[in-house]
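Short-chain dehydrogenase, pasting as requested.
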Amino acid sequence: MSSTQRTAILTGATSDRGIGLATARRFAREGWGVVVLDLDGEKSAKVAQDIANEFNVPAFGHQIDVADEASVSAAEKAVAAEVATGHLPQVGAVANIAGITSPVPFLETDLALWNKVMAVNATGTYLVTKAFLPAMIEAGWGRIVNMSSVSAQRGGGVFGRVPYSSAKAAILGFTKALAREVAPTGVTVNAITPGAVDTNIRVGSTDEQEAAIARDIPVGRTATTEEIAAVITWLSSEDASYLTGTTVDINGGSHIH
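Structure tokens follow.
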């Protein structure tokens, strides 16, 4: 089955300078149907329509709160209805990209912040995966790509810190355990750990902060969102059929051992 007969589900895919939007556009350029799921339902629908018009692929946008089970279930049912009526191809990939950071020192965090960051990043990955996995298992083919971070491996910087790093580390354990469990079904599960990426999260950082970050990266710059999108779509392709339970570092060499 070619990519033109499959749909990619993406969470957190409406930000103009975000990894999610770049990935949605990359999937569409490669012929996939695209589902844009975001907290802003109106913007999700607008982004999906723009993608459909530009790339001539089926696209659908829907509101979702990835940390809320009822909201995730409603989104899954809406997508299933689009598939059942032939408006979308069957689901072939899920990219769990939605996430939030925790840019405050540990002793300034409180339980509410900890719970929110864990809910959106880790619990959201769990809920969305659980909702869309059965259809892929039934089809005997599927790809799940989870967004972790270099912060999970070496601790967060000014944009992440402890709650964020902890949530992203949980995603790595989730990825490996689920990959082992579903490997016989034809579904692969992998994670990516981007380093510094030129996204809207970086808005407000100083020139000094950006220069210091670049100095820590052997290639001398941050990643573009398109470079991250390329890896996500490749992990969702036929070519990545024997890769599961792994973590792909995308950091310009900044985490070399």
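Note for the archive: The chain has one domain: 3-250.
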